[in-house]
Specification:
Blueprint: E1 2-10, E2 17-22, E3 25-27, E4 36-39, E5 44-47, E6 49-54, H1 67-76, E7 79-84, H2 95-108, E8 112-113, E9 117-118, H3 131-137, E10 141-143, H4 152-164, E11 168-171, E12 183-184, H5 187-192, E13 196-197, H6 199-216, E14 220-222, H7 228-239, E15 244-248, H8 250-254, H9 276-287, E16 293-294, H10 303-306, H11 323-332, H12 339-346, H13 348-354, E17 369-379, E18 398-408, E19 411-415
Parallel strand pairs: 1-4, 1-5, 6-7, 7-8, 9-10, 10-11, 11-14, 12-13, 14-15, 15-16
Antiparallel strand pairs: 1-2, 2-3, 5-17, 17-18, 18-19
Length: about 425
């Protein structure tokens, strides 16, 4: 299929131009008739966004989300590739589950799906998962997802074994022995009568992982870093040449623990929302490159898991359909990040870390592209999301950067233009 996108501003620079796609790849201009033409009216055109950390709940929890609904939601947010975590049922810890996810995504997916395999069998930190067989089946990294790789011995073995297959370990950094709580530890948690989770619980594990990576000379990736001290650990390690990369999520640079007031369970997540100083540190970490990428940690939940007591509610929020807008509104429009830097954090760098070979607008590259309206504000409405879930704290927020067109591999997967 030949596609022509008219009046697009590439990376929001220069005058609007025409953009060509031929047979699923970005093309030079051609004179052949086009099967489909889109006039995006001056919208900005970028490489398709890549989410290196999300949850599609499939298999096992399809009542919360599934591959079809999750990737539709992703496409509406401008994502053309997503990497789901392995906390499914059964756990994605063997080649059979990986193959089923890959197969289903090809049948019903609106985005490319690159699964992340479990680091340990059953995510229980007792025994290595079948990393080599999963790599053959299609995983792009390993992780215990919402659970840490608990022991240093196992973390060393996971890193060594994954490294033999050219895979990176993505670790949820949390010392479970001191993290039993519902929100960030501080004055607000005390006032609300909730047990707090100290930043120390996150930072102990960040420090451990850095030391193991430094000792082995192997890469490690720190998931959803949320606080100033943890970011400084990563910054210092990078300065020493440690092969550590890190991610954060939009909620950590756009919200603080104050969003939990009123016991709003949509603001309950892991790691928890932190203090304002931590929020500023996350932005500083993105600006200076300490934090490499922005992920959504898209975590859809049924209302029965959220509309309960705060301490009992499950952690997480949906994020596909707000991530870029939050980044553009809170980082670019405020002058903290350039637009180019934001897009790199959400496209090229995730591709580089996971070795996906995407995230560019080069001629001949896969035609994964997205277009955003950067000029007009809109009010985010959770009831218009394409996800099955509605657990978001951003309902009613005025944002900029609404997706108007997403094309994945030359196939239109979301269109707002009509």
């Amino acid at each position: 299929m030949n596609i022509l996108i008219k009046n697009a501003r590439l990376m929001n620079e220069g005058d609007p131009v025409d953009f060509y796609i031929r047979d699923g790849r970005i093309s030079k201009p051609f004179d052949e008739p086009c099967d489909r033409t889109y006039d995006v009216g001056g919208a900005a055109l970028f490489p398709g966004l890549i989410d290196a950390h999300c949850h599609l709940r499939d298999p096992g929890y399809e009542y919360k989300e599934d591959i079809e609904s999750g990737t539709k939601s992703a496409a509406k947010g401008g994502y053309t590739s997503v990497c789901p975590m392995p906390n499914t049922n059964p756990v994605c810890d063997n080649a059979a589950v990986v193959s089923s996810i890959v197969s289903k995504s090809k049948q019903v997916g609106s985005a490319n799906v690159f699964p992340i395999g479990a680091a340990s069998k059953g995510l229980n930190s007792k025994e290595l998962a079948e990393i080599g067989l999963m790599k053959d089946a299609g995983i792009v990294a390993v992780s215990n997802d919402g659970l840490p790789v608990e022991t240093s011995d196992l973390m060393r073995k996971v890193m060594e074994y994954a490294g033999a297959f050219d895979l990176i370990v993505m670790d949820h950094c949390e010392d479970k022995s001191i993290s039993e709580g519902a929100m960030n530890e501080g004055a607000l948690s005390t006032r609300m009568g909730l047990r707090g989770i100290p930043t120390l619980a996150e930072n102990i594990m960040i420090g451990r992982d850095i030391q193991i990576a430094e000792y082995l000379g192997l890469p490690v990736h720190v998931c959803h870093v949320s606080n100033r001290a943890g970011i400084q650990l990563i910054r210092d390690a990078k300065a020493r040449g440690v092969k550590v990369t890190a991610e954060t999520c939009p909620h950590y640079f756009s919200l603080t623990e104050e969003a939990c007031e009123g016991f709003d369970t949509n603001a309950k997540m892991s790691p928890p929302l932190r203090a304002e100083d931590d929020r500023q540190a996350v932005i500083e970490g993105l600006a200076d490159g300490t934090i490499d990428i922005i992920v959504t940690d898209h975590a859809p939940h049924h209302q029965d898991d959220k509309q309960i007591e705060f301490s009992l509610a499950l952690n997480g929020i949906v994020g596909f359909e707000t991530a870029f807008s939050l980044g553009y509104t809170h980082l670019v429009r405020t002058g903290r990040l350039s637009l180019k830097h934001l897009v790199e954090c959400m496209a090229k760098r995730p591709s580089d870390i996971l070795k996906l070979g995407r995230g560019t607008l080069d001629i001949g590259a896969p035609a994964d592209i997205t277009c955003f309206d950067l000029e007009n504000a809109y009010v985010f409405d959770k009831d218009k999301m394409l996800s099955k879930a509605r657990n978001t704290p951003f309902h009613g927020h005025e944002l900029f950067g609404k997706c108007v067109l997403t094309i994945t591999g030359g196939r239109t997967t979301y269109e707002e233009l009509r």
